[in-house]
Q: What sequence folds into this?
């Protein structure tokens, strides 16, 4: 079993090496490493799969090949069949999101999980779907449900990874900068007010309060850091006062 | 504007026709139709894009080509840059899920949204990222963050579609008049640049790109309406040029 409980990916009778490579690349992106290939049309190894895999090349190289789905899933506990349509089959049909929720619970209990994808043109045979525990169907526009094999895999792997990452961290942000205080803002507004008065910006006295308020709201909405407020104030100073020798 | 408020997809300097086609195919799968292509490496039309698009062929056929990102996003209200790394930039960096939550709110108010993707090898230039309102970064395994262009698009479009399917019922309001386009921002920046040059704001040439970039990021973050941009431009004009008789 993968040490991190990541799902195994099984590609059944894939036709194009490019797609095998694309799946492997996505596996690498989303923290999966165990690829199994059932009866690949163009034999094995496959040069195009290696070329297309990019950072997932080692995943292609380590992939195991099986003659049929039954042998490929011999040590799997729970298998999810990716299909474009919810077949007329007495089997749970889940969205990727719902499937991953179940899968994370199952993997936490030690289950070895597999995602099973069929050939590009036809998808999985009904009897292959039957061998799986549930169906995962990616929601699409109703008339346009045919996803490329690599793309289907991306969606499932992304959704799996996302839910596993959610438990560890939340969204990143790039804003390390020091927060600004209300005092910083007040100083900016006072400086700006001075320039605006000098420039006779407010021609009609009765509109002045609303205009000031609007400008404050606009600027505040940027949620500037202390440094950004200083930058803006420096810009205003140079625009309105020109370059001055610094006071020593 | 797409009648259903679906996002526009902008591919900046895409290298491979196959990837353009893959993006178009995914757009069709996930209910998007408006594709814009900036300076495609291999020219336009592109046979491989058409071949790879499958059911998205009509999307490729209807795609519009632009010379640069600025012109491609002239009528866009809010742009999301897809980048593999959260750049060191004072701009919101969101997961696809968080971005789509915001986007659905924005689109409900009538905003025209765009997803912006860079070239396969290098991604977007920093100055292109600066032109966007936020960054979307797909969570990946830390050492393996390079997604294929088509696959990145699949993830964003899937996440968008999934959330739109969840939210079909939410009411739409009408604030069309209030929104600013990227053209409005470009005009503001051009005006500001002129004043800054006149005032000799940039004393050291090598710092100029970063300073311009920071100022753009700060101002964009306020998400100003068209009226607010006009207000700010009017204020700048009076501060820098003084009161002038109005043109009649």
A:
């Amino acid at each position: 079993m993968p040490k991190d409980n990541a799902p195994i990916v099984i590609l059944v009778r894939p036709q194009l090496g490019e797609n095998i490579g694309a799946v492997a690349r996505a596996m690498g992106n989303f923290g999966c490493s165990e690829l199994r290939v059932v009866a690949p049309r163009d034999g094995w190894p496959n040069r195009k799969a290696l070329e297309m895999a990019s950072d997932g090349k080692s995943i292609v190289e380590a992939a195991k090949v099986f003659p049929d789905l039954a042998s490929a899933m011999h040590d799997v506990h729970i298998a999810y069949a990716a299909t474009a349509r919810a077949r007329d089959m007495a089997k749970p049909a889940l969205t990727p999101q719902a499937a991953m929720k179940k899968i994370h619970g199952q993997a936490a209990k030690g289950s070895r999980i597999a995602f099973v994808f069929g050939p590009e043109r036809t998808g999985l045979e009904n009897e292959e779907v039957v061998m799986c525990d549930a169906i995962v169907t990616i929601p699409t526009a109703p008339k346009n449900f045919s996803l490329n094999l690599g793309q289907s895999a991306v969606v499932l792997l992304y959704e799996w990874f996302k839910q596993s990452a959610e438990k560890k961290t939340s969204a990143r942000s790039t804003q390390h900068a020091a927060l600004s205080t209300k005092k910083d803002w007040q100083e900016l507004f006072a400086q700006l007010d001075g320039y605006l008065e000098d420039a006779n910006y407010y021609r009609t006295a009765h509109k002045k309060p609303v205009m000031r308020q609007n400008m404050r709201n606009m600027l505040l909405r940027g949620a500037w850091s202390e440094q950004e407020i200083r930058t803006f104030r420096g810009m205003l100073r140079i625009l309105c006062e020109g370059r001055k020798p610094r006071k020593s």
